[in-house]
Design brief:
Layout lengths: L7 E6 L2 E6 L3 E4 L2 E5 L14 E3 L8 E11 L5 E11 L22
Antiparallel strand pairs: 1-2, 2-5, 3-4, 6-7
Length: about 110
């Protein structure tokens, strides 16, 4: 699975279903070495992340972080960092599989 994917796990919050940031294991010599953490600032790795289920569509969401620049009515300028959410490229597959049954071909001896 690509290292930029962060799993969102469903958790019950009263009557609502929320999505909580999960973690994927990192592997090294001898097995599991730890948990993969977000590398950017959008998901704020040091804070708990809980999203409402309806905030993340099936096709995924792409969040970008960009500088915003504006001029106010008095002529002053303001610069800040903003975030914009939009649809992703569509429902994809990470290639991760669980409980897969495959038909085995019988060999003729």
């Amino acid at each position: 699975m690509p290292d930029y994917r962060i799993p969102l796990l469903p958790v019950k919050d009263g009557n609502a279903l929320r999505l909580k940031r999960g973690a994927l294991p990192t592997f090294g010599q001898g097995g599991i070495q730890g948990a993969q953490r977000p590398k950017g600032r959008l998901l704020e790795p040091d804070r708990e992340l809980l999203l409402y289920e309806e905030e993340v569509p099936r096709e995924g969401a792409r969040v970008t972080r960009t500088y915003q620049y504006a001029r106010w009515i008095d002529g002053s300028t303001h610069l800040w960092i903003g975030r914009r959410k939009g649809p992703d490229r569509g429902e994809g597959s990470s290639g991760l599989q669980f409980d897969v049954a495959e038909k085995r071909e019988e060999e003729n001896l």
